[in-house]
Amino acid sequence: MTMEKVVAPESWVQGGEGTSRGALGAVDRNSWSPYGRHDKANQVLEILQNSARYGAVVIGPWGVGKTALARNIEKLLNPTTHVVRVFGSTTMTSIPYGPLSLLVAKLPTTALETPVGIIHGIADLLQSEANGKKVLLIIDDLPGLDVMSLGVIMHLVISGCVKILVMVRDLNNLPEDMLWLHKDGLLDQVQLEYFSRAEVAELISSATDSAISESAVTALHSASSGIPLVLKALFDEQVANGGIRHRRGVWVVTGPINLDPASALSEIVSSVLARENETVRVGVEKMALIRRAPLSIVISALGEDTAAQMEQRGFLKISSQKWRHTYLTHRYVADIVRGWLSAERKATLLAEISACASSELKALDGPEIMSMAAWSLDAGLVLAPEAALTAALEAVRNFDPGLALRCTAQIPPTHRLRIDAIQARSKAFRILADYQRALQELETVSEADQAELDLEDYCAWAASLCGALLWVDGGCVRIPGVLAAAHERITQVSESGSATHLSIRTAENTLRLAFFEQQIFRGDYAGAIEELESASEDDGDPGFALNCSALLVPAFAATGRELDAVALAKRVLGTVDSGRQGLCFADYCKDGMHNALTWSGLWRESVDLLRNELEGLSQLASYSGGLIELRLGLSYTYAGRGEEAVAVLLAATAQLEVREFRNSLPLAYSALAFAYAQINNETEALRHLALAEDATRPTLWTNDSMSLFFRWMAMRWLDDSQASHQLMDTAREDIAQKRYTIASMSIFGSTIHGSEKDYRLLEEVSLRRQGPMATISVLLAVSCQDRDAGKALEAAALAQELRLDAVESRCSVLALDLARDNGQHGQARMARERLAHLKEKLAVLPVSPANQQVKLTQRELQIAKLAKRGFGNRAIADRIGVSVRTVEGHLYQVYSKLGVTTRGELEQGVEL
């Protein structure tokens, strides 16, 4: 097997300069490495400053940034230390004094006569050049030290002339003398690892002085394996080709990370592979095509010896799971090498691989089926329709719409699986957020085609059509007609006796799921719950029952059964993870679970789950990452953590503006508006409110409801007098529809200055809910009705446990006002202590304590706050819907009560 057919740059063989586009020099490649290594740099400095140590040895794999760390140490020590760099090589060398040749060349001739003379000559030379400074000898790229050089270095170290900083990939590569120093505790070890996902985010943010979306972090970490050397080249390449863009001050990923084989990474891969023998290089070629397969297939395709060599050299990763899934350790190597291979070379290799893999197809899991389909298509092979459909469905399940579309293109338009292929294509376009195209794909099925379908296939197509119609303008009004036609078809078939009872039942359940989805989509939870609960216990059709359970989760979450929703969601998702059943409505289930956790006050559990999900995404994170980040931002927003919410939501919004998954932008804009209001940034809050008004899309009722809630809450925090009324109006509508969770939150938000009747309603509705937030709402309502400061403090304590700072502040303010009115000095002191602590966390309190000396009416307080923020009389009048004369009159009363005479005194000297 030869390498002539590989289309690779010259540096493949030479491992040298390379002239490929965007080639990076060593300094540029490593320019990001010092970021995020401050702890390691400090650790090395502490060791070097320890008089009981001879120095430090930094251990880490190729590309981890050892040399860059050494350069950083050199810069930090430069004022007080004379630094000398010595380079070994990755192979043992026999050239005497080779690494020290630059120092030896400076010695006088008399010093070169004996080894002892060279040792003392170098020692004197270093002391002379140091001119009184300490001397640090940096030894890079071991094990390449000859015996003579090692003798000189050991003398310099033991005599105290120098301290050493040794860079080595593995501890076993240290020369024996240095290894003994390490074992004796005279050389301390510092371990460097590749960057974790969190460190990649910190690295890019620090290096570019810009935030980065979680989706982009996941994609870059997956593609680079966290190798600093690769990450920098990869990031630059993706920015240059538009794969990563800068939006709203955030780096976002626009699609899968596609590596150009002529990019700067080509030079890196060439350099790495140039050190390997031909057997390993051919193995890398084959694995680049295989991508991922069970170990048995890999051994068949590569040979046991080759696989063993590749694993030993760090190219092959073998999982510990049942099928021992095997793949190249670094994905970027696979992508670059695959791009180098000519069509002829691919065909040759794939012919060998196919012969080995064909007998083991049953051992493949979903990603491996996708891998086999991808390399078959890359080689120009034709997939059998059954295999193409299987791979397409796996691609849809794993958020790879591009592969799904390529696979379905292999199914002829006359084949019996064509309708299944059309449905898979529609799902792929929904992942791409092209909802109009997703609908158009399904509409290509003509009436004649529909008539030829058997009952189950026809109803499956009709259900897919209903699901696609939900996401396009005017689509919902067409759904009843589609379902009616499908039910008529069932009736006809049933009466004709041309289908089995099982087939008819399957078709009916398919349509029932489509109808249930429509109900949940439009927020008709009360109308759906009873039937869904009954259907979720259908033992005769486990898949149907599971999907009904998934749709029950958002229904429970919105109707006051938040904890039931969480428990049900975990059971459903656990069933799917175990591989026992497929799930069509996973997004509904996850949405419902995270909403239930957040609405019930258990927002931190939601955050933990979402962060774990983000970290587990593949390089295809651009398709679903924006939605997961949005869910994360919503949790922070509901929890009143404005700063954290803004940071996450900006990234989510930027990602959704690239690809608006599930028509979620209006919700993102509204959540940002409320988050900005929480941190007292009125300009940005109003700007995003305007964006939310303009961005209307067909989306889940829950999304519309949350968007409306955030908009009115933002306005309420900005002292809009109509906001509380609007929140109460929407709450009454939700109560009528038995959406008690949503109604309770709206009432809670509207009752900053609520009446006793309002608080009675808050108590009644909140008693229909589950979870700690319901308890807080009841305690707050009771404290207002009974004028009980103790209940308000109890609510504040519970909010503190949940880390709901804004809620805690509101309960504490209420407790303070009630305790003052009741003359309860101890409780007033406790409330003041809470507020003093909260003022350090919150940019603005959602409600302020009443002025103890001066009693302003609600309207006077509202106008005084607006005037204090700089609003003119006309602006105040327009904002709260009264005349300018009314504003002037109220301001006169405010000035009189507060003892001020000008607006300037009000703005600067009075706390409201």
Structural notes for this entry:
This protein is mostly helical and 912 residues long. Among the domains are: 37-191, 3-Layer(aba) Sandwich (Rossmann fold); 858-909, Winged helix-like DNA-binding domain superfamily/Winged helix DNA-binding domain (Arc Repressor Mutant, subunit A, Orthogonal Bundle). The protein has 47 helices and 11 strands. The strands form 3 sheets. Strands 2-3-4-1-5 form a 5-stranded parallel beta sheet, sandwiched between helices. A hairpin with a 2-residue loop joins strand 7 and strand 8. Helix 6 packs across helix 7 (147-158) and helix 38 packs antiparallel against helix 39 (756-766). The protein is flat, with a radius of gyration of 34 Å. Residues 849-912 form the HTH luxR-type domain.
What is the CATH third-level topology name of the domain at 37-191?
Rossmann fold
**Overall CATH class of the domain at 37-191:** Alpha Beta
Main beta-sheet annotation: 5 strands, parallel
Strand residues, percent: 5-15%
Helix count from the secondary structure assignment: 47
Distance between the termini: 82 Å
Gross geometry: flat
Mean pLDDT level: 84
Spatial order of the strands forming the largest sheet: 2-3-4-1-5
What is the alpha-carbon Rg in Å? 34 Å
**CATH level-four homologous superfamily name of the domain at 37-191:** P-loop containing nucleotide triphosphate hydrolases
